[in-house]
UniProtKB/TrEMBL annotation:
PROSITE patterns: TPR
Origin organism lineage: Eukaryota, Metazoa, Chordata, Craniata, Vertebrata
Coiled coil start-end: none
Name used for this protein in its record: AH receptor-interacting protein
AIP/AIPL N-terminal FKBP-type PPIase domain residues: 27-154
Job description of the protein: May play a positive role in AHR-mediated (aromatic hydrocarbon receptor) signaling, possibly by influencing its receptivity for ligand and/or its nuclear targeting.
Amino acid sequence: MAAEVVTLSEGIRKRLITAGKCNLADFCNGTKAIFHYRTELCDQKRTVIDDSSEREKPMELIIGKKFKLPVWENIIRSMQQGEVSEFLCDTPLVIEYPQVSRSLRRIAAGQDPRDGQRHCCGGIAQLHDHSLGYQDLDELQKNPQPLIFIIRLLQVQGPGSYRQDAWAMSDEEKLGAVPLLHQEGNQLYKQGNTTDAAAKYYEAIACLKSLQMKEQPGSSDWIALDLKITPLLLNYCQCKLLEGEFYQVLEHCSSILNKYSDNVKALFKRGRAHAAVWNASEAEQDFSRVVTLDPSLAPLVAKELKKLEMRLQEKEQEDKIRFRNIFH
């Protein structure tokens, strides 16, 4: 027998799927709710727009932080930990969903959720003619409609029992979190856990980037924040070098060198990344520049160039054998 549909408030109807395992939480301001969500259209096929369970990390929402989709906070407040429920929400309550979904998708992909929309203002009306970068979200933005959310509330954490994600922090909290995240990243790196170390560095960078976006590019405050970002980004690149993510290293080191052309660490890491993807001449140029800027690194550079030469010789021999076999 289907569960009864109840009206939570104007425009929100709820159907319980699986009951929770504990009493209703207080959900005072600062409470963190961790949940998976599945977003569906109200069409005959119940077309799926998003399903967070397909991503590595569930959604985290801080009660009272004025999340861009207030209906989610209203929904969560009606739930128990462990509960699974379905919510039908009228169009006016989900008008911002395409923009929210875009940001969440970009975050899940490790991208800046604000790229491409930093200077847009005036709400969704002015964004009507701008692509969000996703065809389904563009269609939903042009044709707003009711949405169905299936929410699985995984965990409820009281204020003070967790560290907030960067997007949920105040400016002061972000500044305070950066040195702690940096230290945690360094400790994880020393333990050989480059994946988690990179995540810590990335989180610290995200804190500083969000503050930097509020400053005029090139201003003293902007530069001060950028100088804090740079060593964190270099640490992140070191982790990615060890993990074989060479094109990420090339991208990030180049972004540093576009601003600070004499950054020896960025040149050296970019040189190693170039060497790893067979960009021999580019690697040699970067390594030559390293030695010019810091002659004490000449022995280290010589080792990298020797490794590159050996790899090129091996590749040449492999290519000769491969091409020889083509004609047999």
